[in-house]
Amino acid sequence: MKKLLLFAFTIFAFSFVSEAQNPTEKEQIQQKIQLYFDGWDEGDTTKIGKAMHTTCHLKFFRDNKFTDMTRADYLGRFKPKTKDKSLKSSILSLDITENIAAAKTEINNEKAIYIDYFNLIKTNEGWFIVDKISVRKDKK
Q1: How many angstroms separate the CA atoms of 92 and 120, rounded?
Q2: CATH number for the 24-138 domain, one of 3.30.40.230, 3.10.450.50, 3.30.413.10, 3.20.20.30?
Q3: Cα torsion for 123, 129, 132, 137, to the nearest 10°?
Q4: What pLDDT sits at residue 22?
Q5: Quick one: which of 137, 138, 126, 140 has its CA closest to 23?
Q6: Among residues 86, 109, 92, 111, which one has the least CA distance to residue 33?
Q7: Spatial CA neighbour of 49 closest among 79, 81, 75
Q8: Alpha-carbon distances, residue 2 vs 7, 9, 11 (angstroms)
Q9: What is the tens place of the pLDDT at every residue in 74-106?
Q10: How far is CA 38 from CA 31, 50, 100, in A?
Q11: Could you say which residues of the chain have pLDDT below 50?
C-alpha cells in the first residue's frame, strides 16, 4: 500500500512540476509581448524582431496621413539606447481564441503614451505579433 501511495504521489508531483514548467498560452503571449517591450525600451531590433512575424505590418493614422509600414521599415527606426527608467509598459487586455489572440498594450514614457493593438498568431515556432495598429498621444 505504501508503494502504491508513493507511486501515486510521484506521478502527481511529476505532472504538477511538468505543468509548472510549460507556460500557458496566456503566459507565452505575455512573454512574447514582454520581449517586444524590452526591445522597444532598449532599441534592440533583435528582440523586437523575434516578437514580430516577418510579415508583420504597423499601421497608424497621424497628421492626416495613413501609414502602413513593413516590419523592416519599423525596425529601421530603432537605435540601441539605455533603458528609460521612467518607461512603463503593460498589457491592458488580452483575448485568446485557439491559435489567435488580440492584445491591447500601453507604453508610457516622458514624451508620449503609445497604445498598440496587436494581433497574434501561434505557429509551429510559437506566438508572433502579425499585425499592429498604433496611436501616439503626445504629452504636453
Answers
A1: 15
A2: 3.10.450.50
A3: 160
A4: 79
A5: 126
A6: 92
A7: 75
A8: 8, 10, 14
A9: 999 999 999 988 899 999 999 999 999 999 999
A10: 10, 11, 22
A11: 12-19
Residues 6+ apart with CB under 8 A from 127: 25, 28, 29, 32, 101, 120, 121
Q: Which helix (H) or strand (E) holds 3?
A: helix 2-21
**The predicted structure's pLDDT at residue 39:** 97
Number of H helices, E strands in the chain: 4, 6
Chain center to CA of 44: 14
CA 17 to chain CA mean position, Å = 25
**What pLDDT, on a 0 to 100 scale, did the predictor assign at position 14?**
47
Question: Domain residue spans in the chain?
Answer: 24-138
What DSSP designation does 110 have? Answer: S
Cell numbers standing for residue 119: 494581433
pLDDT of the residue at 17: 44
